[in-house]
Design brief:
324 residues; mainly alpha; two-stranded antiparallel sheet; two-stranded antiparallel ribbon; 14 helices; 4 strands; disordered N terminus
Amino acid sequence: MEASLLVIPLVLLLLSITANGDRLKVGYYRQTCPQAEEIINDTVTKAFKENPCVPAALIRLHFHECFVRGCDGSILLDSTADNTAEKDAHVNNLNPKGYEIIDEVKSKLEAKCAGVVSCADLLAYAARDGAYLAGGLFWAVQAGRRDGRISLASEPPLNIPSHSYDVNKLTQVFASKHLSQEDMVTLSGAHSIGASHCAGFSGDRLYNFNGSAGQDPSMNCNYALHLKAKCPPSASPDVLVPFDPVTPTKLDVNYYINLQYNLGLLKSDQELISDDATSREVKINAKYPTIWRKKFGRAMVKMGANDVLTGSQGEIRKHCRYVN
């Protein structure tokens, strides 16, 4: 009898343990800050009208954010005298416009409902709104994230996929973030917009493939000539090349079409066509844009629930660049 009684509290304990991502929900601020999503959308839309590169900056910022410590706003923290933060890691050489938009939105939210909307949630909404503006993609954002207090420049290089990774390494990194290989190929479609510095691809694709002088033989020859003109060996580190040479500011399936013609900019992009499983996903996405759009939204929701802080964990920052 005593043994059976002990089972009951154990079962209740197990039932009460859920992943933090399960505590996120759509409409989280409906009562506490009902205008939150409207304020975020209005600000992102205004910025987009001034600069069509804004969606790429926000989506990439959210991606880099969630791959380090989960989606806790840690990428938004500034470095201090005694700590170099994530945003100053070399791999996070991101468009400063993204940070500026987050600052502007946070200021407006604090004026409307102080201490309510987390920076981590703000970024998730802003990335979604950017995707809608760039390609009409939409998904219901789950919110309820709290902001972390730790941000270390040493962590992004260990967690964010490198442009030099092959399919196996990419799959492993995404799996470590609770994302499947299909999610990986789906989310890679974000490279339909945005750009890379020459250093992100010229070394291992144009001039020094596998340690030998020469270009990657898998690259379209005409495309390689175009890139070499853009990125000579002496190219300025400030030179940017769009991921998609056809529709560089439109979030669409052209990324997948390009891969089939060997027009992938990064090695990690073009690698997706070299593996049977990922190549099949590439072809499906290229052929069925409506399916890809739905999968992209689901994958973003899944990524956005990655190792989040909820409940009494972390804090709600008053300013996204500093802990309270």
